[in-house]
Design goal:
Helices cover about 20% and strands about 45% of the residues. With about 170 residues, it is α+β, with helices and mostly antiparallel strands.
Length: about 170
């Protein structure tokens, strides 16, 4: 019985991988998720002594990946003072494609909302981490791969992740 429980814990843990991102990228991601409308994110709020903590999860329902940020706001500030974010990938999800050192998936859910939240761009807009790893991308080139990169049009988004920062 004891081995069965250990095996189940191992299997459950093996399906979810977390991308390690640095502080600046967490702040960028936390600010982005804070701009998204409630229709496309799950949002919870708790009161802190000097402000509030809003935890935002995108997408609302489980998928091949999820972004979750706990943003602390000092008093009534519209911009978070601190952000703690995690990106979780379900590495066994058939929607995820893996090739070389890069993982990617596409999706149409909330593409228009993400497109509007990104700061600039015309037909296509990109939001990416500052952190990068040396690796081989989907096209087979030796290059630097962003820890996370989201490229959206109004109708669809491409999500790319570096495999080297998975835990």
């Amino acid at each position: 019985m004891k081995y069965f429980i250990v095996a189940m814990l191992f299997i459950a843990h093996a399906q979810a991988s977390i991308i390690v991102i640095d502080g600046w990228d967490q702040t960028k991601l936390g600010t982005l998720l804070g701009k998204l409308p409630d229709a496309v994110v799950k949002r919870t709020q708790e009161v802190l002594p000097q402000g509030k903590r809003i935890t935002t999860t995108f997408p609302k329902t489980t998928n091949a990946f999820s972004f979750e940020c706990a943003n602390d706001y000092f008093e009534d500030s519209p911009v978070p003072s601190t952000s703690e974010c995690t990106i979780t990938l379900d590495i066994n999800n058939p929607k995820l494609e893996k090739n070389y050192d890069e993982i990617r998936t596409t999706g149409s859910f909330a593409a228009a909302e993400l497109f509007e939240a990104f700061p600039y761009g015309k037909d296509s807009r990109t939001f990416r981490s500052g952190g990068m790893d040396e690796g081989t991308d989907f096209s087979g080139r030796e290059t630097l791969i962003f820890h996370y990169l989201i490229k959206c049009s109004v109708k669809e988004c491409l999500y790319r992740f570096s495999e080297k920062v998975l835990q």
